[in-house]
Amino acid sequence: MRIGLVRHFKVDLKRKRFMTAEEFNKHVYDYDKAAVIANELVVDEYWEKCYCSSLPRAITTAKTIYHGEIITSNKLIEIPTAAWANFKFKIPYQVWAIVGRFAWIRNHVSQPEKRIKTLERINDILNTIIEENDPKSNILIVSHAGTLYEIQKMLRKKGFKGRGFIKASNGKLYIYDK
């Protein structure tokens, strides 16, 4: 089986360098609704089926790069994040994002979804994809940076091999074979 992973296209949304907690949470909300900037990636001829996050940026990407069967799933959405403290003063966006991911790893109460639940939903959809498709099939997954990072780790545990990444590039294909 071959599984291709694609992170959605770059999101067309400006962000401030420094944000309060309220501004960070609004940015996360706006990011989920924002349009994307397409690139030239097209993968039609090789893949038999595409599984895609239900968030608009992923759906737009999937419909742009692939014109076959697309199955959307809430189980492929991005790992949700929120401000981990209610600061009224501004701190850098990168601090919000990095500490937010650590808060998720540590199951901090500030995060909308606990790590164990996130990993369960991702593992569940990955098992479904593997079980429902022929072992010789080529399956495409369009999702988000955090989710794809966890998917690649799970694929390796299931015996797949492919080029790893820390943060998947927007609109780039990563291939895993078993």
Blueprint of the fold:
Blueprint: E1 2-7, E2 10-11, E3 18-19, H1 21-33, E4 36-37, E5 49-53, H2 56-65, E6 70-73, E7 91-92, H3 93-105, H4 115-132, E8 138-143, H5 145-157, E9 161-162, E10 173-177
Parallel strand pairs: 1-8, 5-6, 5-8
Antiparallel strand pairs: 1-10, 2-4, 3-7, 9-10
Helix pairs in contact: 4-5
Protein name: Histidine phosphatase family protein
InterPro entries: His_Pase_superF_clade-1 (IPR013078), His_PPase_superfam (IPR029033)
Spatially, the strands of the biggest sheet line up as 6-5-8-1-10-9
Radius of gyration based on Cα positions = 17 Å
Write down the overall mean pLDDT: 95
Number of strands: 10
Percentage of β-strand residues: 15-25%
CATH superfamily: Phosphoglycerate mutase-like
Distance between the ends = 5 Å
How would you sum up this structure in a few lines?
By secondary structure, the protein is of the alpha/beta class. The chain has helices at residues 21-33, 56-65, 93-105, 115-132, 145-157, and strands spanning 2-7, 10-11, 18-19, 36-37, 49-53, 70-73, 91-92, 138-143, 161-162, 173-177.
